Amino acid sequence: MAEDGKPRHRVVIVGGGFGGLLAAQGLRKAPCDVTVIDRRNFHLFQPLLYQVATGGLSPANIAAPLRSMLRRQKNTRVILGEVVGFDLAAKTVQLKDGERVPFDTLVLATGATHAYFGHDEWAELAPGLKSIEDATEIRRRVLSAFERAEREPDPAARQRLLTFVIVGGGPTGVEMAGAIRELATQTLKNDFRAFDPASARIVLVEGHERLLPPFHEKLSRKAKSALLRMGVLVMNSAVVTDVEPDHVLVKTSSGAERIDTETVIWAAGVRASDLGKLIADAVGGVELDRAGRVMINPDCTVGGRSDVFVVGDMAHGKYADGRQLPGVAPVAMQQGEYVAKLIARRLAGDVSPAESFRYWDKGMMATIGAAKAVAQSGGMRISGFVAWLVWLFIHILYLARFENRVLVLWQWFFNWVTRNRAARLITGEAATRPADPRRDGKGSAG
Amino acid sequence: MAEDGKPRHRVVIVGGGFGGLLAAQGLRKAPCDVTVIDRRNFHLFQPLLYQVATGGLSPANIAAPLRSMLRRQKNTRVILGEVVGFDLAAKTVQLKDGERVPFDTLVLATGATHAYFGHDEWAELAPGLKSIEDATEIRRRVLSAFERAEREPDPAARQRLLTFVIVGGGPTGVEMAGAIRELATQTLKNDFRAFDPASARIVLVEGHERLLPPFHEKLSRKAKSALLRMGVLVMNSAVVTDVEPDHVLVKTSSGAERIDTETVIWAAGVRASDLGKLIADAVGGVELDRAGRVMINPDCTVGGRSDVFVVGDMAHGKYADGRQLPGVAPVAMQQGEYVAKLIARRLAGDVSPAESFRYWDKGMMATIGAAKAVAQSGGMRISGFVAWLVWLFIHILYLARFENRVLVLWQWFFNWVTRNRAARLITGEAATRPADPRRDGKGSAG
Questions:
Q1: Which has more confidence, B117 or A359?
Q2: Which of A237, A250, A252 is nearest to A206 (CA)?
Q3: Tens digit of pLDDT for each residue in B23-32?
Q4: Is there a contact between B44 and B67 (Cβ–Cβ < 8 Å)?
Q5: What was the pLDDT predicted at A414?
Q6: Percent of chain B clearing pLDDT 70 (strictly above)
Q7: Inter-residue contact B295 to B318 (CB < 8 Å)
């Protein structure tokens, strides 16, 4: 209730990622009641998940309780819940436990998950990297493979255990490949007695003819040569055609190749949250793109509804020239801010048509190992150590929104100086049954 | 093989906790090959698990890879495996996957787990605190209870969600009670909209007439009054007779009491590792005490075997006057060191009877909240802030063996200044299905 007794405008934001969080924060002074609904109790800094997956950072270093981030914002409440439907006539969001949350304005920002291009059966064998649980599961598999290799007398089986295949040569794939290679050659250097960890083979498989396809060609080349110098095997124009417990099949221009491995990491495809289809159906006449993203209007609304917004990775937005916006954090953040401003403007009584959302592209970057990166911004392209410093600076700047920023910086610096990765714990239920960590069920954790 | 071609003496240490780790480290210069076998890839600093359970520290802050701790010790290898049997005639240890590891000298140090006094059915409802997974599971339950309370319209149901029962008033119980109370009153202070987190009831149930029974009576009283001042409800001479999903029954001197709660934490009983019985049976004629601990000889050997040692929480050792040694880290550490010295002495050719193990009791301590503790050493007894500084100093000193000591110190200081707990993540599989986190299965993680 507002002070004058009229019910306050209710904004419901589904998803506490980059888009949802920025939308909520943008409404902190607006005369409305904001409800943020998320399945998890924390905001996750996804771009650093690969650091958790390779034992460099702890989950808590890159996640902060949503509630805590929004605690001082008195018009906002956070509820832990899973949205399973929309009733646009009644203007409610339905939660899994049956509760219906009423809204006047709805903002959807539930992101994306990995896609296996019609091979969902690969999901168990080749986990992707979207959640904390994904990251700790990958960490468990990678570290367990080294542990099992230590006890494996057969050289062929050992080499299979020491082979890591990363599918997808975008930023995540490049970062994972570099980080696992460094884990093997530096962090684990003196840890094993039966083999030299540097004998680990890290294979990066990319369907496109070059790595980091959206980057400038020169940076793709730089990234590739940096990875090759580190000892990563890079396969371009190579498509994974089968994933089995003990090998993957890869089709290249020169034929088919079998790679014996027990650890496959999926960094290839993206599929929008299932809520995209639900909202498209509820609104009616709204299309989805091939990855399930909702085709949004220039002001981030959907179809004919001025009260329903979709932002971030679950939306298919466009540049002014009609090209598709990339699925990166800055787009989600800027869309979240844009939508918050738009809602606040309307609440202030200005109902004139909104200016279209314009993405301010500050560029993109990817790290390759501990102290190298490639970055481009407009016409500027940098690589190597300087690019890495820029990468570090920008990430620290964002993490500054978290309360534990100093810790992350310190952990990082510490890792960098010592080449250590302190968080390399094998946790989760399966971890307590070491015989065959791969088959024994689900891991997660710590 | 030694340089002279003779096979080297093989020491197999099962368990990488305090006892096993110290035994291994004590043998670093001895002319033998050491194999440390553990189910987990890390050494865990159990006394700080309660900090993980209440979101103050991340698992990696209190765990370090065993392999990494022993990396510079060239005569030592670490294998990840689960011991399931002993063949003392063949002098081998059998692993779950069928491998047999030969030994000349065997050191067992696999610790203890919680005991439910014949009520194993309570384990699901009232998790104990022995592993990283236990800690993240408790963290998940405690934080989820607050989350569910935020969405619970019924005041009685909400109060039930906001009631936390800790069974057992030893150091772990006292520490948990204080930490959860502080989580509620300080860390979560402004986080919720539907209730005041300070309304959370933390009930500490202890069967003995005072808390911390092994401590001096004066310190027990101090601990109790400190907890009461913080707002913890303390029940003495109270025994839990039933644990159900929505309540516990407690029998006190004045009758039976029902406490409505959905979050129960077990800090009451201890049972030695099952390997205790296995080794006792293998050696023959060796007794176990009521908690399954192996009755050891004064030199930590078992029965008539001079080549089999049992140390730490799985052993029942004695003071010179016949009283039982407590199940605390310093005993395990000193026994580990003692056994290493004994083995080294024998390898050097000195086979004269060993002096009995003598525990050097430096005292004991327990924390109560963020800046209070009780400690006693010999006739000296301290409490309050000074005791807490001593506690902090001693724990930091031990953690200095870990590589991430500076981080832990920093995290602690940071928590202490800000009253924040940065690691309060709800993770694990069940966490992604929020409807009823309690019933949905196993959580763990992050």
A1: A359
A2: A237
A3: 999 999 999 9
A4: no
A5: 63
A6: 89
A7: no
Tens-digit pLDDT profile for residues B276-312? 999 999 999 999 999 999 999 999 999 999 999 999 9
Angle between helices A18-26 and A329-347 (to 10 degrees): 30
Give the Cα separation of A47 and A398 in Å (integer): 11
Instruction: List pLDDT tens digits, range A385-413.
Output: 999 888 888 887 777 665 555 666 666 66
A236 is written with which tokens? 């371009």
Q: Distance (Å) from the C-alpha of residue A133 to the closest C-alpha of chain B? A: 6
Tell me whether residues B418 and A403 touch, CB distance under 8 A.
yes
Whole-structure pTM value:
0.89
- Report the alpha-carbon distance of residue B231 to residue A259 in Å, rounded: 61
Set of chain A residues whose Cβ sits within 8 Å of the Cβ of B132? 425, 427, 445-446
What is d(CA A361, CA A382) in angstroms, rounded to the nearest whole number? Answer: 16
Paired tokens of A362: 């500050």
- CA separation, residue B61 to residues A182, A191, A365, A400, A414 (Å): 22, 20, 30, 21, 13
Instruction: Give phi and psi for A66, each to the nearest 5.
Output: -55, -45
User: What are the chain A neighbours of B41 within 8 Å (beta carbons)?
Assistant: 143, 147, 424-426, 431
Residue ranges of E strands in B46-82: 63-65, 76-80
Contact: A446, B136; criterion CB under 8 Å: yes
Q: Are A354 and A340 in contact (CB under 8 A)?
A: no
Cβ–Cβ below 8 Å for A59 and B143: no
* Identified catalytic residue from A137, A152, A175, A262: A175
d(CA A141, CA A443): 9
Mean of pLDDT over chain B:
89
Give yes or no for a contact between B114 and B128, defined as CB atoms under 8 angstroms apart: yes
**What pLDDT sits at residue B398?**
76
Q: What percent helix, strand, coil does chain B show, rounded to 5?
A: 35, 25, 40
Dihedral, CA of residue A151, residue A155, residue A157 and residue A158, to nearest 10: 50
- Interchain proximity B432–A40, CB inside 8 Å: yes
A99 classed as catalytic: no
pLDDT in tens, A286-333: 999 999 999 999 999 999 999 999 999 999 999 989 999 999 999 999
Identify which has the larger pLDDT, A444 or A394. Answer: A394
| B429 with A418: Cβ contact below 8 A | no
- Chosen from B66, B130, B193 to mutate, greatest number of chain A CBs within 10 A: B193
Q: What is the ipTM of this complex?
A: 0.85
Give percent above pLDDT 90 in chain A. Answer: 73
